[in-house]
Design goal:
Radius of gyration: 15 Å
Strand content: 35-45%
Number of strands: 7
CATH architecture: 2-Layer Sandwich
Number of domains: 1
Structural class: alpha+beta
Largest sheet: 7 strands, antiparallel
CATH topology: Alpha-D-Glucose-1,6-Bisphosphate, Chain A, domain 4
Distance between the termini: 45 Å
CATH superfamily: START domain
């Protein structure tokens, strides 16, 4: 099993951060996560439990693949949990937001990859790829702070 658990403070309120990483995840994720080529929603309407999409990724700059993923938890302005079950792997990622001091938000990003069968041989590579999620947190922070307005008090 490969896991990443990290957090970062973002200079925006939780509702704005969640709007980017939860409510509009399918639209924004390719803008703040390296390796995502495209996301094609399979369900219409707003993000909710049961929302599905196909994510096209380019890993290690050579390995292009598609994976289905689905929202399994959606708690407005607090938490979104997505998972994908593919032959040989199950990946779960969780993005949560919480209020912090001075109008900031603490964003936590947790990812777990459970590899089975022959894919277990790829665990060292999966751990290496998951370590890159630290950069994803920094990229989310930059995207949110650059593309959203500071609310007036």
């Amino acid at each position: 099993m490969a896991t990443f658990d990290g957090s970062i403070y973002i200079h925006r309120p939780p509702s704005i951060v969640f709007d980017v990483v939860g409510t509009h995840l399918f639209e924004t994720q390719p803008k703040w996560e390296d390796g995502i080529v495209a996301i094609r929603p399979l369900t219409e309407g707003p993000m909710r439990v049961g929302s599905k999409a196909v994510m096209e990724r380019l890993d290690l700059l050579v390995w292009r693949h598609e994976t289905d993923y689905q929202c399994v938890v959606f708690d407005q302005d607090r938490l979104v949990v997505m998972h994908n079950d593919s032959p040989g792997s199950r990946i779960v990622f969780r993005l949560s937001v919480a209020p912090a001091e001075h109008g900031e938000t603490l964003l936590r990003f947790w990812v777990q990859a459970n590899l089975t069968g022959f894919n277990r041989l790829l665990e060292p590579l999966a751990n290496l790829l998951l370590r890159a999620r630290r950069k994803t947190l920094v990229d989310i922070k930059e995207y949110v702070e650059t593309n959203t307005a500071v609310p007036s008090v």
